[in-house]
Amino acid sequence: MEQNKIPDWYKSLRQKHTRVMDALDELGKAARSEGPLDEKTSHLIQLAAAAAIRSEGAVHSHARRALKAGATRDEVVHALVLLVSTLGFPTVSAALSWVYDEFEKSA
């Protein structure tokens, strides 16, 4: 993650709980490497899960990482639009607004 995009609260958490945060990073890497899904698809799935639990920070993070892994903006949006019938429009709309924040930052 680029340093200028890391929220201050997250930097503080990493400083105070380095071992826990390092272990969390390794868990994510291990989970992604366990199966046949590529990195882009993995982040799109994690983006959908983040939207489902209404985690704004995780939506931002996985949208950025999906884009970095080669996802197009249309693929990121589609991953969320697919959830409308499952999660409902308000939840998907919120997630889309967070994704569009990321699009604006990278424009």
UniProtKB/TrEMBL annotation:
<keyword id="KW-0560">Oxidoreductase</keyword>
<keyword id="KW-0812">Transmembrane</keyword>
<keyword id="KW-1133">Transmembrane helix</keyword>
<dbReference type="InterPro" id="IPR003779">
    <property type="entry name" value="CMD-like"/>
</dbReference>
<feature type="transmembrane region" description="Helical">
    <location>
        <begin position="76"/>
        <end position="100"/>
    </location>
</feature>
<feature type="domain" description="Carboxymuconolactone decarboxylase-like">
    <location>
        <begin position="20"/>
        <end position="99"/>
    </location>
</feature>
<keyword id="KW-0575">Peroxidase</keyword>
<dbReference type="GO" id="GO:0051920">
    <property type="term" value="F:peroxiredoxin activity"/>
</dbReference>
<dbReference type="InterPro" id="IPR029032">
    <property type="entry name" value="AhpD-like"/>
</dbReference>
<dbReference type="Pfam" id="PF02627">
    <property type="entry name" value="CMD"/>
</dbReference>
<protein>
    <submittedName>
        <fullName>Alkylhydroperoxidase AhpD family core domain-containing protein</fullName>
    </submittedName>
</protein>
<keyword id="KW-0472">Membrane</keyword>
